[in-house]
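ok trying again, last paste got cut off:
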Amino acid sequence: MRPVKRGEYNFGKTNIYISSPIGFVKRRYQFEGSKIIPVYPSYIQMKKYELMAISGRLTEAGVKKIRRIGHSMEFDHIKDYVRGDDYRTINWKATARKTHLMVNHFDDEKSQQVYSVIDIGRIMKMPFDGLSLLDYAINSSLVISSIAMLKQDKAGLITFSNKVSNILPADKQARQMQKILEILYKQKTDYLESDYEILTSTILQKLNHRSLILLFTNFETVNALQRQIAYLRRLSRAHMLIIIFFVNTELYSLIEKPAENIEEIYHKTIAEKFAYEKRLIVKELARYSIQSILTTPQNLSVNTINKYLELKAHGLI
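nice, full thing came through this time. structure:
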């Protein structure tokens, strides 16, 4: 049996046919009662990036190599100087003792909190290439949580729509990924309007330390953003907030297609207007110093990892 989507598969009365090796004898077994089988999100994508992170090969998947600006202030150890080390990190006392150059080695600050906040409202039901935007957000949150824990940060999870459905406190214990999977595999959109006021008050109340908040949602118009901008600004003052929303690739295929009649010209004009709205949303967020990622669904994981590594390199988290 091959499940085609995540969630809970509920089996009722089950019939199993068993035959002998050469097929002469066949018998049917019948099992009463229901059986619920959990179907988890894709492990394949998560494991692919996880292995690349362990071996330092994330750039092979299109993840940018981020140039480090300075270094974090978390001291790790003293090591021998090699060509290319920053001369500003030379430890002169250790150099005098060893009679050759020694440098301080600084590592990324660890145990930072990284929360994936997933909107499960009706706007995330939009389909793309056989999956909904919610499916893409779930797969990407698994990837970024796994990468964060490999970087010794703490990964947490929040889901919300008209209320906050789940809060998993950030942690880096071995069982944390299994806890995240247990929450995410049965998430569905509930077709309700997402309440950012409740989300904001809950985060400000529950998250006592400054954290990286990766908010997976979608805005189609500037007006839709402006209705929520006050809450997003409150969040960004207390935490490092990244708004992640989606490019409608169907619109771009319509824009690039030559128009052959008046009706197609009208459709193309409307499509260009909606595409322009997305770019305006990015500018509007930047006006309030809120960082954002506007991405196609298929590039969501790579772009999210890029942003996380960039923030780590600049010491912003």
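cool. Residues 7-39 form one domain. Confidence is low (pLDDT under 50) at residues 68-72.
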